Amino acid sequence: MATATPAAEVRYDPYDVDIDDNPYPTWKRLRDQAPLYRNEEHDFFALSRWDDVKPALADWKTYRSGRGTVLEIIRADVEIPPGILLFEDPPLHDAHRALLSRVFTPRRMLDLEPLVREYCTSALDALVERDEFDIVGEFGIEIPLRTMGFLFGIPHADQLAYRRRTDDALATDGTPISFDQSSFDEVLGALADYVDWRSDNPGDDLMTELLNAQVDQPDGTRRPLTREEVITYASMVAGAGNETATRLIGFTMQLLAQHPGQRRLLVDNPSLIPNAIEEILRLEAPSPVQARYVQRDVEVHGTTVPEGSTMLLLNGAANRDERHFSRPDTFDVHRAEGPHISFGYGLHFCLGAALARLEGRVALEEILRRWRGWDVDTDRGAMAHTASVRGWGYLPVRPHRTTEGAR
Ligand code: HEM
């Protein structure tokens, strides 16, 4: 058994909503005082330094995803349906990822840009005359839903129903979520009707490609995916890409309101926007905690973490490690220090990163075309608390009026 415990004064409770609202002071203390942190109450270990988290994300032989990547899911010890890449280890993960990568091409992502821009244009135009709006509820929630819809060819109403069902399965009010087999069934069942409809009505979309995809068999033959496999793939991609991208929009508006000088740089030079999106992702990772099942005894910072433990890899903390980044808490749209790990690292690196970047960039380009300045009311805003994602659930924005009356 592990013997070392953290410095007594450091406490990181992932269910403490006050910590979750602003985890950075706590995570700094972890990095400095308890680089291998142990939480007895919730029975997990945690790594927070860049040099520890990044290699651990790639070390699937020690830190397995195959039992889930959320603390509660690992605990619940449920059987995970095949096809959920996030919750798989090699060789199955690699085979499934290869198949998905074949249909999830850069070309298909690029083709979505005009559609995403068209949606942003109409959604933001509808807000232009308003003195205040909720950027999350009135825009941030919609953009990934629409983008997923364009990708899969899913009717909009079905996407909203899907979103409600997955949100219900993963919402936490500061207590551990209760996760059982029915939660999976709930999430996976949500897209089933649409998959059936699409198999009778093929189109030029990712769902149709999945329905036509061939999977390699161990005996060298190939077979089409089963209906259940298509449902699982589609649900997993939609689930992974929805809430995360919403949270990116909220953080974008917050950080730019709080740093008007940086915002001005983007207004004057929109070619900086892609770099600004990277900096926002680094500073405020929408998915800042990746849980892993410890597959074998491992020695970390002089302590043996026993097989069967749960390890939290705090990529959101590693992104602000002063051992790796200069001025890590400073928001700098010119930062040129190389990548963050907000999309993970290694074999599970986010499959939708290009799409998430596209959504963030197009949204911000269109926002800055309409408003050069705004304030956010963080006191009235509310953070959403879910098991694996953090960010604004509600964020009132008040656009500035210029002297001419324009915005
Ligand atoms: C700002 C938005 C996003 C963030 C911050 C984000 C973050 C992440 C992270 C941290 C992982 C790795 C998880 C782990 O190591 O256990 C991941 C994996 C994944 N993401 Fe994203 N993601 C975003 C958007 C998207 C989008 C838009 C899609 C799909 C269209 C998507 C699809 C996936 C998939 C399929 C995986 C699993 C890859 C694998 O296990 O091989 N993500 N994402």
Strand-helix topology:
Elements: H1 17-21, H2 24-33, E1 36-39, E2 44-47, H3 50-58, E3 63-64, H4 71-76, H5 92-103, H6 106-111, H7 113-125, E4 133-134, H8 136-140, H9 142-152, H10 156-170, H11 181-189, H12 192-200, H13 206-212, E5 214-216, E6 222-224, H14 227-258, H15 260-268, H16 273-283, E7 290-294, E8 298-300, E9 303-305, E10 310-313, H17 315-318, H18 353-370, E11 374-376, E12 382-385, E13 390-394, E14 396-399
Parallel strand pairs: 2-10
Antiparallel strand pairs: 1-2, 3-7, 4-14, 5-6, 7-10, 8-9, 11-14, 12-13
Helix pairs in contact: 7-9, 7-18, 9-10, 9-14, 10-11, 14-18, 16-18
The protein binds protoporphyrin IX containing FE (HEM).
GO molecular function, one term: cholest-4-en-3-one 26-monooxygenase activity
Keywords: Heme, Iron, Metal-binding, Monooxygenase, Oxidoreductase
Family: Belongs to the cytochrome P450 family.
